[in-house]
Amino acid sequence: MMNEQVNAAEDTATPYRQSSVSATIWPWVTAAGQTGAAAGGARRRQALIQACVMTAIAAVMAFVVKHPAMAVVVCVLATVVLLSGLFVPPVFAAIERFGAWLGKAVGLALTWILLVPFFVLCFIPGRLILAVRGVDPMQRKLNKDTKTYWTSTPRRSTPDYYRKQY
Question: DSSP 3-state assignment of 139?
Fold first, then answer.
């Protein structure tokens, strides 16, 4: 009875449920509900990780790709992210919101600018070519002469077949 009350209280406090398996990898429910010092530590850690990744990207741009101007731009952005994450939380939050908006915009643009034309230029003509040639790779033609559409497969004599994943 007591456990049910505790679970009911947790359900009203946190509208999201997360399994223990996914919480081990990324505890996003507790991270989203953090307040005070815990939230500040999470923000600082996130800013530090982002700045380190951006610095590594800048190093690759400078030394591997040989593009020092872009490396300087990425280093400046890494510095802004790190300093705002450590000392100016509202600026860091604005940077995070902009990053989320930019990710969504790029995803939508890629979907509509690349994937739709690819579908129209590749799949529709491919299907028309197969239809003109009379090829039916999924065997969808209706054949009234057959009793069943069951496709028989050879019997597997040993369980070794089922142990292979490929």
Answer: coil
**Opening angle at CA 76, ends 92 and 63, nearest 5:** 130
User: What is the pLDDT, as a whole number, of residue 8?
Assistant: 44
Q: How does 58-81 read in b/e, with b if 16+ C-beta sit within 10 Å?
A: beebbeeeeeeeebeebbebbebb
pLDDT mean by block of 10 residues, the chain; 166 residues: 44 61 71 62 92 97 96 97 95 94 94 94 95 88 84 80 75
> 85: burial class by Cβ within 10 Å (0-12, 13-18, 19+)?
buried
**Residue 151 in tokens:** 């496709």
Cβ–Cβ under 8 Å, residues 82 and 55 = no
User: pTM of the prediction?
Assistant: 0.56
- Burial-class residue 57 by CB neighbours within 10 Å (0-12, 13-18, 19+): middle
Task: Give the C-alpha separation, 81 to 39, whole Å.
Answer: 17
Task: State the Cα–Cα distance between residues 60 and 148, nearest whole angstrom.
Answer: 61
CA–CA separation, 96 vs 86, rounded Å?
A: 14
